[in-house]
Amino acid sequence: MGSASLATQPSPAALLSSLPARGRRRLRLCSAPRDSRNRTGVALNVYTAVGKLRVTIKAAQSGVNNVSVETLPDSEASVTGAAYGFRGATTSLTNEILTSSKKITLVRHGLSTWNAESRVQGSSNLSVLTETGAKQAEKCRDALANMKFDVCFSSPISRAKSTAEIIWKGKEEPLVFLDSLKEAHLFFLEGMTNADAKKEYPELYTRWREDPSNFKVNGIYPVRKLWGTAREAWKEILLTPGENMLVVTHKSILRALLCTALGLPPERFRSIDVNNGGMCVFTVNKRGEAMLQALNMTAHMYSDHTYQF
């Protein structure tokens, strides 16, 4: 930003136009009192793509003679990683400051036996990865070959565990199994084909499919409970040291992870879908606030596509 001749004190519009286009996110203008030499200091707090900067321009009638730029401390930085500069825009998933920002890649397990048979899976460990599912896991591994992860978290349930082990094969970094990444428990519906469940328990099954947040068995609301489980999982993942994490789990808990990160309630459970082997990516700032970068990426399922993000 070079010097410019000004006949009078620069206006806010003139100062804004002199800044790089990418830096014009949001300004807060403050005027400082004139000193004995009739020089005015104008301070601008500028939200940029990399954070908030304070630009101080000291102007005299003869022109701009001093421009300084400093990065503000984290306590004053944009709460959303500088995407926009206002508080309350997102909700912290940790309620505490992290040591670093993080990138989280979420992967749904490959095709399972009960996926193929159209059975209700829930938290059952009897549904295992099929040969097709194993090949999908290999495609996920190949698609992420250029990525460096600090740790992999996985559900301990068989179909997700096997997918994670295939993706993580040969890596020295830890593979951690979290109970908070288990799938929702669906009680006596688990193992039934969808057709049989609909026939034998029509009201209950319809509620599960069409109004899942109010689906209740023995006084328990599985989807509502899943929201609490998802918040627990986010804390465990984000409070672990490292900056780039891989998470392998199931569709229902994935929906809950996505919705809790985006501030969506259990009523929005079926508003998001993730295919077998599909990937989602979040960036999370130091305040534990998440921003969705990619949803249900599946290009690698149909090609040799590799990711670099």
TrEMBL record:
Substrate binds at R108, H109, G110, L111, S112, T113, W114, N115, R159. The active site is at H109, E183. SMART domains: PGAM. It holds the Pfam family His_Phos_1. One of its GO terms (molecular function) is phosphatase activity. Belongs to the phosphoglycerate mutase family. This is 2-carboxy-D-arabinitol-1-phosphatase.
